[in-house]
User: Fold this.
Amino acid sequence: MQKLDERRGAYYYIHVPAAVVAKMPEQKRTRLLCTVDGSISYRCGLNHMGDGDFFIILSTKNLKTLGKQAGDTVSFVLTRDDNPLGVEMPEVLEALLAQDEDALAAYNRLTDGKKRSLIYYVARFKDIDKQVKAATDFLSGRVVPGRKAV
Assistant:
């Protein structure tokens, strides 16, 4: 396990060789479950190293749970995540998509990455009314997380 330099985000990561990724069903787009040292499991995706290889981010929280630091050796097992988005959809968003044809059409036009962004954005809010507003604003294009509203 290593740590990226500050310019690249200073994330802790696990290196995954390109040869391993080439054997995966959707190669670099495969959503994964990563089990580290047999004690923690989490959903993840692959990130480019820039040299043909890939990496998986290991959160600081998981690092502390493992009692590890940069440079330590970890064992890990990667398995394909059967959920193509790699995240659970909030009930509010599920209900909205089941009831609103326009929202469903807009959702279906999104890439998997944008769908994940929508799910994370909606899940930030605890209040159901705010979740509905967040979802409808996102799907209508009125708001894009990380950008100022227009």
